[in-house]
From TrEMBL, chains A, B:
Protein name per Swiss-Prot or TrEMBL: Histidine--tRNA ligase
Keyword DNA damage set for record: no
Keywords tagged on the record: Aminoacyl-tRNA synthetase, ATP-binding, Cytoplasm, Ligase, Nucleotide-binding, Protein biosynthesis
Subunit structure comment from the entry: Homodimer.
Principal location: cytoplasm
Family: Belongs to the class-II aminoacyl-tRNA synthetase family.
Gene3D superfamilies (UniProt xref): Anticodon-binding domain, Bira Bifunctional Protein, Domain 2
PANTHER family reported for this sequence: HISTIDINE--TRNA LIGASE, HISTIDYL-TRNA SYNTHETASE
Catalytic activity: tRNA(His) + L-histidine + ATP = L-histidyl-tRNA(His) + AMP + diphosphate + H(+)
InterPro entries in the cross-refs: aa-tRNA-synth_II (IPR006195), aa-tRNA-synth_II/BPL/LPL (IPR045864), Anticodon-bd (IPR004154), Anticodon-bd_dom_sf (IPR036621), His-tRNA-ligase (IPR015807), HisRS-like_core (IPR041715), HisRS/HisZ (IPR004516), HisRS_anticodon (IPR033656)
Organism from which the protein derives: Chryseosolibacter indicus
EC class of the enzyme, as a word: ligase
Tree of life domain: Bacteria
Cited PROSITE patterns: AA_TRNA_LIGASE_II
């Protein structure tokens, strides 16, 4: 029989990884809740009619589709089968798919529950998503997203709170060297306008988005090929290369955007966000106004965010922005404005591992292992075990009659910090040898003293 | 455009349900960890070669299968397509499926990581599973399982600890009226032996398993049809109808099992489990020795468990048992004995809802909503908000400039217990009107006093 294996691009998370992942999740969840966001979970499977057409053609290809149950070929036209036309029969034999992100299921939820929801609706959602992407380092076919969104308000307070939440999560994770990049769709539109690239925005934004990866020359080349003149490109890089403080950049852009209402809208919004941060007494450390930040997704309409951890091989670990048309795609006529962002936990994990940032507490293990020389001492140990657990101390007893060495090995391998070895002496005296496994120290003390020491 | 919908048998969990579910999950997780179990997570998708053949033919039918990506028909034989043979092409166009339970992925994990695991390995796993079952009340196509297993030891301490964990979880959930039923495969085999039903065990156990649902007469009928004589059925019900304390039942069975080593093994194991519970100082309340408990799954080899909450429409909410062949199905030659059980969270949820057992704390909401009359007071409110969050109080500010009534309505709908309404007076004096939304009381106090009161 073949050895079992995992599907490509998927992973098991054993206890050591789980403990670290839970450390990240708990941190994020606590911050989300502290900011008034409420949890939502949606099913792994969605109707394909919900998913398709939302992520572009490439996204549709990357959806994992569920084969219909039963005699799924029954109603498929013969000709489709005879011509082996996989594409054309996909929707005949598959009605459901695995969710590709958390945004579309959230939009579906809002549309379906609009009348029960009190807006503004602040929800967070921490669940895996699936993409049939080619697996590579840092890219998996199953990975977790942690999203927080507010819909039903266009208040820029929400944008400011996103920045605050990111800062607080990173503080909790002890990640210090990072940048929250912020920009605004209006500013990008303004740039397109003033350099004479109106009508050609998509090509422009796609190219700009690559700037920090491929450099100015390549971006120039690409845009020249798309019909941008040398003059407009000079103006473009004159703007993109603006340096200095946030205030300086804004002042510079204001001079460029005299004729662009979109550009002015972008500047006004960003200024307001920074004002709110100030009123909140938040430092602007780690916050960067990045004029070249574009983000691929075309549905953003206002502020956009991206977070990078510095000095690691991983790219962005979080991103988001404001959208005005979340539910329109489901035929909703009322415009619901919203703003949200997403943490990529798998990438944060990899970055923290690379930087050695996981604290020692990011471990799950029992605090105490009760060991025993014989059956009598094991039975006596059960009472000790109960007393420890009764006060909330995670503890276990070695379940078999084996040599003490083997029991202590088990404690070491499982990183259990304390052991209590019980023999006939201990059963008689009630004094127990509590051993600190790391320091090797040992003291014979009473159960009460043990509890005090460990709590 | 069509209104979006959910796939049959799946559900969204909005904030109110999520809070209650998290209450259950947290409780279970805390108990598992207190008993030294460590977390594991496996991917939603497994290779079909891992899943098929593990759940019987019916189970195989209920697996959700993932359609291969790309040109999935390319290599399918023409004849299979021409004859529209759905069944025969299933494995040609689908290599992966969604996990059906947590036991098989756990077994796969153990086989794949055998050399890194320190045995006995105590793992817990809390994840959704998927079954293409016909949806009905209490039966969903996506639902959570919470499993805890110990493998690599045949110590009966583990069985006793399962009972202790169930008791502790139910105590935490305030579920008082329930029964942990325990039986042993050896006792069932012993019964088969002494009534002359050897070789016909499966039919016997399947029939017995229905006893409390369909009653004695129906079970008699069914077994008669399977060839059991009236005499052996009389003996069967003489045994199954044994009444009295655990000790009495055991004494009675011991007289019946004089010639059955299997029956004696069952009694010996159970006696040891009860002895351990006694050494642990655990009461035997809620524990029942149920001779007719059979549980369908044929892979159990020792103790079996089932938990029922009384006076609710839901059946069993937890079950498990000892198995000796967990990893054999993956070609593992070494026998790894293990014992485990599973909580059905969806059923526990339904039962607790039915019994009105969710405490008031099983809510997630902000503690405070900061409300404001105008922009100046909103900006002032941001400082208040920060101060509250800095000490860990979940709080939010209404993000838009709207009437106070609307802001207070929002607090009520979201069950936020406190509000602070800020106007120009408050900005000047720094004294803030903290309102207890439930009692309607209001007091003008300082920020420090507010923090003290709420913490």
């Amino acid at each position: 029989m073949e050895k079992p294996s995992l599907p490509k691009g998927t992973r098991d998370f054993g206890p050591a990884m789980m403990a670290k992942r839970q450390f990240i999740f708990n941190n994020i969840r606590t911050v989300f809740q502290k900011f008034g966001f409420l949890p939502l979970e949606t099913p792994a499977m969605e109707n394909l009619s919900t998913l398709t057409g939302k992520y572009g053609e490439e996204g549709d290809q990357l959806l994992f589709k569920i084969l219909n149950s039963g005699d799924f070929l029954k109603d498929v036209e013969d000709i489709k089968l005879q011509t082996k036309n996989s594409k054309s029969i996909t929707f005949d034999i598959s009605e459901k798919g695995l969710r590709y992100d958390l945004t579309v299921p959230f939009a579906r939820y809002v549309v379906m529950n609009r009348h029960e929801i009190s807006f503004p609706f602040k929800r967070y959602q921490i669940q895996p998503v699936w993409r049939a992407d080619r697996p590579q380092k840092g890219r998996y076919r199953e990975f977790y997203q942690c999203d927080a969104d507010v819909v039903g308000t266009n208040s820029l307070l929400c944008e400011a709170e996103i920045i605050l939440m990111i800062k607080e999560v990173f503080k909790g994770l002890n990640i210090q060297d990072y940048a929250i990049k912020i920009n605004h769709r209006g500013i990008l539109s303004g740039i397109a306008e003033v350099i004479g690239g109106k009508g050609n925005e998509t090509a422009l934004f796609v190219a700009i988005d690559k700037l920090d990866k491929v450099g100015e020359d390549k971006v120039r080349e690409e845009l020249q090929a798309k019909g941008f003149t040398a003059e407009s490109l000079n103006l473009l890089f004159n703007i993109l290369n603006v340096k200095g403080s946030i205030v300086n950049k804004m002042a510079f852009l204001a001079t460029k955007f005299e004729t662009s209402t979109e550009g002015q809208r972008g500047l006004r919004d960003l200024k307001e966000v920074f004002n709110i941060l100030e009123d909140y007494n938040a430092s602007q450390d780690n916050v960067e106004f990045d004029v070249s930040l574009a983000r691929g997704l075309s549905y953003y309409t206002g502020c956009i965010f991206e977070v990078k951890i510095n000095n690691v091989s991983i790219g962005s670990v979080s991103g988001g922005g404001r959208y005005d048309n979340l539910t329109q795609t489901f035929g909703d006529k009322e415009n619901l404005s919203g703003v949200g962002f997403s943490f990529g936990v798998d990438r944060i994990y990899d970055a923290m591992e690379e930087l050695g940032l996981f604290p020692k507490e990011a471990q799950v293990s029992s605090k105490v292992l009760v060991c025993h020389f014989d059956e009598e001492s094991m039975r006596y140990g059960l009472g000790i075990l109960k007393a420890l657990r009764d006060v909330g101390i995670s503890s276990e007893i070695y379940p078999d009659q084996v040599k003490i060495k083997k029991q202590l090995d088990y404690a070491n391998k499982k990183m259990i910090p304390y052991t209590i070895v019980i023999g006939s002496d201990e059963v008689k005296s009630g004094l127990l040898p509590l051993k600190d496994m790391e320091r090797g120290e040992q003291a014979k003390i009473s159960l009460e003293e043990i509890i005090q020491k460990i709590k």
